[in-house]
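User: I'm new to structure prediction. If I give you an amino acid sequence, what do you actually give back? Let's try with this one:
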Amino acid sequence: MTATFPTDISGEALHKDIRISEFGAQKALGILQSSGKENAGVRVFIKSGGCSGYQYGMAIDDRELEGDTIVVDRGVKLLVDRMSIDLLRGCEVDFVENMMGGGFTVNNPNATSSCGCGHSFRTDGAQSPDGEGSGGCGSH
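Assistant: Good question. You get back a string of structure tokens that encode the predicted 3D arrangement of the chain. For your 140 residues, that looks like this:
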């Protein structure tokens, strides 16, 4: 069963499993509109790997899968699979720009340590899953 959470009149999620910043929403809406996919959203997921144990992933997705948590925040549909939601609960998707370019990032209150590159993280001091993620930032 897919879980969908209501939004208030401004489109901000009332249930805060995951949310998106104002700037992140502006960037995501532009990308979603140009994707050509009707009713598409941003799928945010976790996979094993990276230098700290887990790695973030994002993709444009027009499918709602069994067990997905779906949150509409600031007009952006965020989709999270059932395996990733516990590690992403309370997170905020943001877009950052710096001298090296720009991109989406995840501000994760569940991460107890993260890689210097910001693409991978570990929770509660646990070892990397399956012994992965010990090779430094170049191992993504």
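You can read the tokens as a compact description of the fold. Here is one thing that stands out. The longest helix spans residues 22-35.
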